[in-house]
Amino acid sequence: MDDAAKAAKVDRSSPFTAVPIEITISVGRARPLIRDLLAMGKDAVLPLDRRVDDPVELYVGDRLIARGELEELDGDQKGQLAVRLTEVADIQAGV
């Protein structure tokens, strides 16, 4: 099913479709030793387990709902970060 068909399937008459949710975007994780973390100060660099071109993960709570690529918006929103979705979980089917 393509994205347009999925969007058409959403029951927009339900009052729950107007409730905002918070989506967390994960760009990577770090696992420093506590002694290294305590030694960090301003301008310290904390390496992540991902590369710049790797996909980011989108979560609602602890549930992975999508993956995407970071990009910068243009026009009036120039400089603002956004995520272009590249893979979306089938939330209604629980997959």
Automatic annotation (TrEMBL):
One of its GO terms (biological process) is bacterial-type flagellum-dependent cell motility. GO terms for molecular function: cytoskeletal motor activity. InterPro entries: FliN-like_C, FliN/MopA/SpaO, FliN_T3SS_HrcQb, SpoA-like_sf. It is found in: Cell membrane. GO terms for cellular component: bacterial-type flagellum basal body; plasma membrane. Its main location: membrane. Keywords: Cell membrane, Chemotaxis, Flagellar rotation, Membrane. Residues 18-89 form the Flagellar motor switch protein FliN-like C-terminal domain. Signal peptide: none annotated. It is a peripheral membrane protein. Belongs to the FliN/MopA/SpaO family. PANTHER family: FLAGELLAR MOTOR SWITCH PROTEIN FLIN, PTHR43484. This is Flagellar motor switch protein FliN. It comes from Pseudooceanicola pacificus.
